[in-house]
Amino acid sequence: MHAQEGAQILEVNNLKKAFGSGRSRLEVLKGIDMNIESGELVALMGPSGCGKSTLLNIIGGLLEADSGHISLNEFRYGTNPPSRVVDVRRSGVGWIFQDFHLVERLSALDNVIFALELSGVPTSLAESQAEEALRKVGLSDRMNFIPDQLSGGQRQRVAIARAISGSRPLILADEPTGNLDVKSAEGILDLFKELCEDYGISVLMVTHDPNLASKADRMLLLKDGVTAASDIRSAWGTAGDK
Ligand SMILES: Nc1ncnc2c1ncn2[C@@H]1O[C@H](COP(=O)(O)OP(=O)(O)OP(=O)(O)O)[C@@H](O)[C@H]1O
Ligand SMILES: [Mg+2]
Fold first, then answer.
1. d(Cα 64, Cα 89) in Å, to the nearest integer?
2. What pLDDT is stored for residue 240 in this prediction?
3. Pick the CATH number of 8-104+169-240 from 3.40.50.2000, 3.30.1460.10, 3.90.1150.10, 3.40.50.300
């Protein structure tokens, strides 16, 4: 158990986002309110096109909202353009995507080092931080393998090591198990839970799989532009009505 168990790290207030204008204007997020505590694994579900990735992009500092506020630890943003939320991207959030986004020619270790260096960590520190992150995801014995020599589940572990390296408090995972078989997907969920419990990292994970979502501490359903707490039954209903 970590010291800060239960401390709130993310607070999203009345976040709104629309795309387009005039008759083609599409209101995607209509007032999102949500919190995440330190060490929490939260599953975000909802019909295709409801705005899950849009919400993650705004929390991750890749897109600005039209109105509303976000606090992530010491960071305050929401409507700031991406050029003014560099720090959130560098040290606030780590990203995990469905298709891993690894550099194919670099070893697992160099993939993580490379990302750390891009976020401004000096090379001398980057190597030890990368080794530490790979150890946490159980890949100590695969550090010098390139992605081609790793299984899908192992590749996603490299991506997770990259996301947690440099002690980022929040991991944003957009359908992280979409390209994995059932067993590897469950392995990734188990790893998320371990990282949450052992290191107090928080994970916000988009998934279309109600089974995986039910393993999270909490499920949120995004529908009609707002989020609501959800249980497994309503999540199943949503997964069906694409
Ligand atoms: N840059 C953009 N310009 C215009 N419309 C956009 C833009 N980005 C997203 N949208 C629209 O906003 C809506 C929400 O998209 P988003 O990608 O957030 O959905 P999602 O919930 O992640 O869907 P999926 O489950 O299919 O990944 C969609 O109707 C999409 O077409
Ligand atoms: Mg999406």
1. 13
2. 44
3. 3.40.50.300
Which residues pair with residue 71 across a beta bridge?
11, 76
Q: In this predicted structure, what is the pLDDT of residue 242?
A: 40
pLDDT of residue 237: 54
Extended beta strands in the chain, E state: 8-19, 26-37, 41-45, 67-72, 75-77, 93-97, 170-174, 202-206, 218-223, 226-230
Q: Is 52 in the pocket of ligand 1 (CB under 6 A)?
A: yes
Ligand 1 touching residue 207 (CB < 6 A): no
What is residue 4's predicted lDDT score, i.e. its pLDDT?
A: 53
| Distance (Å, whole) CA 192 – CA 179 | 17
For the chain, residues with pLDDT lower than 70 are 1-5, 232-242
Residue spans of the domains in the chain: they are 8-104+169-240
What are the strands, taking DSSP E only, across 73-230? Answer: 75-77, 93-97, 170-174, 202-206, 218-223, 226-230
Q: Which residues hold their Cβ within 5 A of ligand 2, which is an ion?
A: 53
Global pTM reads 0.92
Q: What is the pLDDT of residues 35-56, one digit of tens each?
A: 999 999 999 999 999 999 999 9
C-beta 163 within 6 A of ligand 1: no
